[in-house]
Design a protein that fits this description.
Blueprint (H helix, E strand, L loop, with lengths): L10 H27 L5 H28 L19 H25 L4 H25 L4
Helix pairs in contact: 1-2, 1-3, 3-4
Length: 147
């Protein structure tokens, strides 16, 4: 017996995957931009952290794009809008990161709820929920002032 791939997922699942894909594509631009704008004596570790975040967004976008096509969809060639505050203090860009990570986490949580009986999709989404929640925790810790 030859395994046949499932029919395309329901419209709501595909829309959610597309929103996640666009958010992760925006994350690449956002974090790469932030890495350029960090100045001061702590530049090197903070710049590296933002570049690592950009790479991770690219990795996430790749996985989600592959999932979209495996479910019969077509990933768009646009990203979600990236707001530019023109304020590039580390505190400000970490606040912006916190907002972005929170919004992305909500999309992954929505995907978990929409996964229904697609266990593989649910597990994929749950893994991303864990990773995004850990990012939020890290950013919150970075925003805390040391004593």
């Amino acid at each position: 017996m030859v395994y046949e791939s499932k029919k395309p997922e329901n419209k709501e699942v595909m829309e959610c995957l597309e929103q996640i894909f666009q958010a992760e594509m925006a994350g690449i631009m956002r974090y790469l931009h932030y890495s350029f704008m960090v100045m001061g004596y702590n530049r090197i570790p903070i710049q590296k952290w933002f570049r690592d975040q950009a790479q991770e967004s690219m990795d996430h976008a790749t996985v989600i794009g592959e999932k979209i096509t495996s479910l019969g969809g077509h990933p768009s060639v646009v990203s979600a809008r990236v707001e530019e505050s023109h304020v590039h203090s580390v505190d400000q860009i970490l606040q912006e990161s916190l907002k972005f990570e929170g919004e992305t986490l909500k999309l992954y949580e929505k995907l978990v709820r929409l996964s229904a009986d697609n266990i593989a999709l649910e597990e994929l989404a749950r893994g991303f929920v864990r990773v995004e929640a850990e990012h939020l925790d890290e950013v919150i810790k970075m925003l805390k002032k040391s004593n």
